[in-house]
Amino acid sequence: MKPTKALGRLLFFTSIIASPVNAIVGGSEASPDSAPFTVAVISSTFFGDTYICAGSLISPKTVLTTAGCVSGSSASSLKIRVGSLEHATGGKLNQVTKVIKHPNYNTNTQDGDFAVLHLTGPVTLYGWGKTDKLSDKNPRTLQQLQTTFISADDCNKLWSDINPVTLNMNCDAAPEKEQGSCSQDQGGPVVNESGELVGIIGYYNYCQPSSNGRPDVNNDPLSADDWIAQNTI
Fold it and tell me: What span is annotated as the signal peptide, if there is one (predicted)?
């Protein structure tokens, strides 16, 4: 089946990926009702607010993203924008009250790359990553791309020399070579045709010339389903 990426939101098994800023390369703008669970993770500092990655709203007060996205960030410095197709405007900003990283997160292999963020209050139910690897600007509107899952063996053959794919990951490939995830798409949802979250965008190929042509690698939420359930409020 094919998955869809909505960089910065939940997605499906003919997978679709979606993302807000340094967004999906070669994708298209998402419609308002295509990925309402996708959120933008915002870093708030003295200098202002900056979009850093995407996430998926898995309960009214819980967001699932990658540990790498929020590494080095305190809960007080993070906000979540929900209910908007744009990462910088609209919807509602919610303060993060707690950051919980998966205990097995490995910064070298990217295994266990999950983080749960708790919000101040319940929210009502997309990604924003670069649409061009050479661009300094991120799209303001959520992007999406339909991709196809590939086998773990085929994926590992293409990544083993750099970063072996573990049993806690899955891989998807875009129909065209110059399509796929890009900077700041991490944490976004990959969903199947049934609307089930089947991946959290991890590392990618097209934005890294040295790995051009390799499939995108996602974190498989089923590998951490018990931990995710225990930390969802």
Answer: 1-23
- Rounded CA separation 12/30 (Å): 14
CATH architecture assigned to 38-119: Beta Barrel (2.40)
Is residue 202 within 8 Å of 110, Cβ to Cβ? Answer: yes
pLDDT, tens digit, 9 for 90 and up, residues 170-226? 988 876 766 777 767 788 888 877 778 888 988 766 565 445 578 888 999 999 999
Query: pLDDT per residue over 5-54, tens digit each?
Result: 443 333 333 334 444 444 555 555 665 555 678 888 999 888 888 899 99
Query: Closest Cα partner for 186 from 209, 202, 175?
Result: 202
Structure tokens that stand for 184 in this block:
């700041």
Domain boundaries, the chain: 38-119, 121-224
**Contact status, residue 35 vs residue 189, Cβ threshold 8 Å:** yes
Q: Is-contact 29 35, C-beta < 8 A?
A: no
Same fold, 38-119 and 121-224: yes
| Amino acid found at 187 | G
* Topology of the domain comprising 121-224: Thrombin, subunit H (2.40.10)
> What does the block give as tokens for 106?
């490995």
Q: What is the DSSP letter of 76?
A: G
pTM comes to 0.75
CA 214 from chain centre, in angstroms, equals 18
Which residue spans within 156-231 are E strands per DSSP? 169-173, 189-191, 197-203, 216-219
**Cβ 184 vs Cβ 200: under 8 Å:** no
Half-sphere exposure of 115 (CA within 13 A, CB side): 31
